[in-house]
Write a structure and sequence with these properties.
By secondary structure, the protein is mainly alpha-helical. The chain is 70% helix and 11% strand. Strand 2 and strand 3 form a beta hairpin. The longest helix is centred in the first third of the chain and has 29 residues. The protein is globular and about 60 Å long.
Amino acid sequence: MSKTKLEITVAFNRELLMVNNAYRQFIQRKLKEQSVDLTYEMLQVVGCLWDKDGINQQEIANITVKDKASITYLIDNLTKRGLVNRLNDANDRRNKLILLTEKGRLLKVDIQPVIDEMHEVSGRNIDVVKLKEFMAVMKEIEINLNKS
């Protein structure tokens, strides 16, 4: 029996959630193996700062697609672990810039191979053309949802 477009879309969306969960579990397992006391979400914030250090909480929230309250909680925990510091923004006293500590920067040496492995494993046996097509479909879905 042939499935409707709606049924296929529902199954597709469920699979997206399963893949997201698989990424999270992969990273959590690897962090635990290396005795790194971070959650997946904390790693997202640290990873964001590895790319662009010294940004405010709203920018981190936008990049990680999380709400600002969640980011505050994550930054509090990262501060307790000595990985980030808050600094008053000279241009806007209401803003706090989030900066990696030396410990936070050095963490990348241990964690980047894990992230690279995750990307290598997740793309294994998948043709580049298929990946590009899937990215285009994902972009269309994002556009559709943002228009609504």
